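## Example pair
The file below holds two records. Each record gives the amino-acid sequence first, followed by its structure token line.
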Amino acid sequence: VRLTGKVAQGYRAPNLAELAKDGTFSNGTELHNPNLEAEKSLTGEIGVDFDRGHWGTGLSAYYTDIDDIVGRTLTTPGTPGTDAVYTRDNQGKVVITGLEWVYRHRLGEGSSPYSVLADATWTQGRQYDTTVDAGTGTQPLYDVPWRRVPPLFASVALDWRPREHTGTIGWAALRLRVAAPQDDLYPD
């Protein structure tokens, strides 16, 4: 049995496009902002692994808090024939939580090169931006799904890994991946 934990701190400085480049995208025009702050994050993870020789399993949980996330703020609503105008801005925080599970079971006796592998990952990301939309008086990006967070996904595999490497192929696997529908989408 192995118990592991980690705490990590990070940041992402605004890139040159966010600081100095104007451009267009599908929803309108985006303006640069030379006063953007760096995004800062704090991550914690704890996990437990069991290894019983011919089988093993593990479960880990993680939590990430990202402050001053860089996004877009609507500056000028679009009208027929004109694009909406957005400015890049630091927009509150994002919280990402998740669980990962893995399982391995060696098939056959002793030195069998075959194993069954399985894993599943669940992740949830939420944005908490207190910016008030002047047109509606609401906070449209408060407690909404975060971008690019995958739905629940899993895989199962038949794995071949010989005990001693004797040829040009070190291992092979036949894997089936599945995912739940992605229905928890960012408002944009």
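Second record, same layout:
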Amino acid sequence: GRDRGISARAEWEREEMCHLLVADRERGLERFKSLCNGAIESFRISTLELLINIANEQPDDLSPEIRLWRQFFEGKKHRLSGDWETAIRVWQTLSVERAAFTSDLEQTWAINLAILHKDMGEWSRAIECLEESLKVLEGKGDERCLITILNNQGYLYKDREHWQKAEADFQRAVAISRKVGDERGLAVSLKNLGLLYKDNMKWDEALEHI
């Protein structure tokens, strides 16, 4: 009963996504991203692969953006499967078309690539990924997307005990969050700043932010 109902709903969602990818590209892309992220969060690699295959069946001239996201999720599939080298290769191949990235793809791609480099012990390369992405997003004038990049970069610096660089990134993320009115971004940035002060035993400053 319940499992059959869940399966039927999942099949219906995939069919709707397939239809939308042709009939309403923007909504189709959002549904594709949502279903892929849901599969990733619940670690359903086979479902992620199925969604990618469905998107692969769509003509490439429908939307370059769909093709780029499809390739991103292909890399994510390999990352989740533990094939880090293939994931790196897929994402680096994708970078050739970086000029066509939307801001959200730029942000997502850079953070995932940086985390993978970090997990492989390549800290300098991880930082480079985020620094490059900051420059790209600054060039696009998309301040909101800078917040997540800065928080991730600050955490990398924090983990390496580069306290001043970490503080500068978190402070900048706080300032941008306030400027653009991003309450969630502000909460995350303030929390990160508080944890940084706590790690440095600056208790008064920590209490002000956490």
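Notes on the second record: DSSP finds eleven helices and no strands in the chain. The longest helix spans residues 2-23.
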